[in-house]
Design brief:
Elements: H1 8-27, H2 53-76, H3 81-127, H4 129-142, H5 150-157, H6 161-171, H7 183-207, H8 211-237, H9 241-270
Helix pairs in contact: 2-3, 2-7, 2-8, 2-9, 3-4, 3-6, 3-7, 4-5, 4-6, 7-8, 8-9
Length: 271
């Protein structure tokens, strides 16, 4: 069954709120008073936004990069300001629709695969229960459960059909209910954040007459946005924010230079 939309905007806010929570933990602000100084502070997991981290990062990052590459190419190709604005806005809208539709179809297809596998597993439990229980022995043995504890562990995880089904969903298929993604939420997040990411490349040409100056301002704003996305991501991934920000920035910068000179070359070939 495909899930209805489940609040995409709060998920974005949760992403940043959870990041702030992790920062507070790292700073020691949330260490409980009864913890001794030597104790390792408890770090909370990412939380509700975890299944949608891909959509959050990909949406805004793709909007920043692809629309900047588009305007760099058309500026290099010698288009007028109005033509650049038209191309940038059309590209932003088309990109947002394409990304949203793609995420919806991909996520829905994945959910349909999960539902089919779960339905098949229910049939296996109903008609071949012993074979499913035997699989638990193998799975728990593979993850390191001691042989003399296997009987008790398997008995606990197969005590009724519902428990056995939930066990197989996690162990056999890796399906964790809290990590399943709504296709609607994935669609709205990726599409809207793509539009948001496109703004640094669109707004300068709406406000500035000179196309070269507009491209310069767009490059500065896009660079700041890319660095910020890379750095903010590390609040959750717990990696180096400077390195991540620069990595994001360098990749897009190389693409921008290539797009600009390709536009120049095409313009020269056509003129």
């Amino acid at each position: 069954m495909i899930r209805p939309p489940n609040r995409p905007y709060p998920l974005v806010l949760n992403f940043f709120r959870e990041g702030a929570l992790l920062v507070a933990v790292h700073s020691g602000a949330m260490v409980q008073s009864d913890q001794v100084a030597e104790a390792v502070p408890y770090e909370p997991h990412v939380g509700d936004s975890r299944p949608y981290m891909r959509d959050i990062i990909l949406g805004v990052n793709d909007g920043l990069v692809s629309i900047f590459l588009l305007v760099a190419g058309v500026v290099g190709g010698g288009l007028t300001r109005d033509q650049i604005v038209l191309a940038a806005i059309a590209g932003a809208i088309a990109g947002a629709i394409s990304m949203g539709a793609g995420e919806y179809l991909a996520t829905r297809s994945q959910e349909e695969v999960f539902e089919r596998e779960i339905a098949l597993e229910k049939a296996h439990i109903k008609h071949h229960r012993n074979a499913e229980v035997d699989q638990l022995f193998t799975m728990f043995s593979d993850i390191g459960v001691a042989e003399d504890e296997l009987d008790d562990v398997v008995a606990a995880f197969s005590r009724n059909d519902d428990v056995l089904l939930n066990s197989m969903k996690i162990l056999e298929f890796g399906i964790i209910e809290t990590d399943r993604r709504s296709p609607y939420t994935a669609m709205f997040l990726s599409g809207l954040l793509f539009l948001g990411g496109s703004l640094p490349s669109v707004l300068p040409f709406l406000l500035i007459e000179s196309t070269n100056l507009g491209l310069t301002v767009a490059a500065v704003l896009t660079a700041a946005g890319l660095f910020a996305v890379g750095a903010v991501k590390t609040v959750v991934t717990r990696t180096n924010p400077i390195k991540s920000g620069l990595e994001n920035l360098v990749i897009a910068g190389i693409g921008g230079v290539i797009a600009f000179w390709v536009g120049n070359l095409v313009d020269g070939a056509l003129s």
